[in-house]
């Protein structure tokens, strides 16, 4: 895996003709210089937080649709985040919720940002996603499948991609939402596409990836753009992502020594680093080992999972529990619904690292 990683960074540093030509053709605006990106990063406290969806939502649609948007729970749970010093949350948007009710969707985004700002939390918003279920439907969302990790999470656009009118809709979605909030200081960064190539799509996701960067650059927001590196075998995707991101974001669920090697490789880009997914206890990616290392290396630390809820992310990716009982060790998540810490010693460590 690390040999492949070296190839990716060599390509990104030297710049292959084909990838650079693709970047120049597709990207309307300008990638931030490394100096600008580093100055931006230096203007913020060390970033720590979680990927966030309220416990009452099984997926992104349930979070953002008018009938199920839950500001009361969001306020309560972001209060938990503030109490342990978290200052950054990564939140997934969803295109169908925007298409259904454009003005209402943007109002709910603004309402979310107001709640987060009250708790002194900045937000990274995610537009597209290649993970989990490919078919999404507006309306009431399914109940969680017992004991199954992220049973209702949705790809965006999933199986809609390639259907008549979809590309125009997706472009309008990115353009409208980003234009509305392009100078909003409550937004830290735009994370354009979560794990492109996942669900065995691989390089089939390159077209949407390239176009999304182009749409975003055309808006020219004040916040930086990024798409996180996550699978080191996807050399073409990774090289494009690295060459076009203002700030390097990435996912790493490995244990601390392996994760540190990834950071050392990524630092060769000379840009700020934010880990936007880590912490899977049964894979030995843990707060007590990884989070102190991230702080020492000056890498932003955003773990997957916050409050135990309908996403069922206390269960591991590949270890369903048919009886729906509590696993011997939670895979993700920090708090129970009532705000009790799953592991009080983890919360104490997080607070200490955040100066609380």
TrEMBL record:
It comes from the Bacteria. InterPro entries: GH, Glyco_hydro_2_cat. Residues 1-23 form the signal peptide. The keyword Methyltransferase does not apply. Residues 172-297 form the Glycoside hydrolase family 2 catalytic domain. GO terms for molecular function: hydrolase activity, hydrolyzing O-glycosyl compounds. SUPFAM superfamilies: (Trans)glycosidases (SSF51445). Keywords: Carbohydrate metabolism, Glycosidase, Hydrolase, Polysaccharide degradation, Signal, Xylan degradation. Gene3D superfamilies: Glycosidases (3.20.20.80). One of its GO terms (biological process) is xylan catabolic process. The keyword Hydrolase applies. This is 1,4-beta-xylanase.
């Amino acid at each position: 895996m690390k040999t492949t990683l070296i190839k990716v960074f060599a390509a990104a540093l030297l710049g292959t003709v084909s990838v650079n030509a693709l970047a120049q053709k597709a990207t309307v605006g300008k990638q931030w210089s490394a100096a600008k990106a580093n100055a931006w990063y230096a203007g913020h406290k060390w970033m720590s937080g979680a990927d966030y969806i309220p416990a009452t939502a099984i997926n992104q649609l349930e979070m953002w649709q008018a009938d199920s948007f839950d500001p009361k729970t969001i306020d309560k749970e972001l209060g938990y985040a503030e109490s342990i010093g978290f200052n950054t949350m990564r939140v997934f948007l969803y295109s169908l919720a925007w298409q259904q009710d454009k003005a209402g969707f943007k109002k709910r985004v603004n309402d979310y940002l107001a709640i987060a700002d009250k708790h002194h939390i900045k937000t990274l918003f995610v537009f597209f996603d290649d993970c989990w279920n490919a078919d999404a439907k507006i309306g009431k969302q399914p109940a969680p499948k017992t004991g199954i990790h992220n049973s209702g999470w949705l790809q965006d656009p999933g199986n809609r991609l390639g259907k008549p009118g979809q590309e125009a809709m997706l472009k309008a979605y990115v353009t409208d939402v980003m234009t509305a909030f392009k100078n909003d200081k409550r937004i830290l960064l735009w994370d354009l596409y979560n794990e492109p190539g996942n669900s065995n799509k691989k390089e089939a996701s390159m077209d949407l990836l390239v176009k999304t960067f182009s749409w975003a650059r055309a808006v020219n927001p004040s916040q930086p753009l990024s798409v996180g590196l996550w699978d080191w075998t996807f050399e073409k995707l990774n090289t494009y992502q690295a060459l076009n991101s203002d700030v390097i974001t990435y996912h790493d669920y490995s244990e601390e020594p392996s994760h540190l090697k990834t950071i050392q490789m990524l630092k060769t880009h000379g840009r700020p680093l934010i880990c936007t997914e880590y912490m899977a206890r049964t894979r030995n990616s843990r707060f007590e080992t990884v989070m102190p290392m991230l702080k020492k290396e000056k890498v932003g630390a955003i773990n997957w999972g916050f409050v135990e809820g309908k996403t069922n992310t206390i269960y591991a990716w590949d270890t369903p529990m048919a009886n729906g009982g509590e696993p011997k060790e939670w895979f993700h998540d920090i708090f129970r619904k009532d705000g009790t810490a799953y592991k009080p010693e983890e919360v104490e460590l997080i607070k200490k690292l955040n100066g609380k």
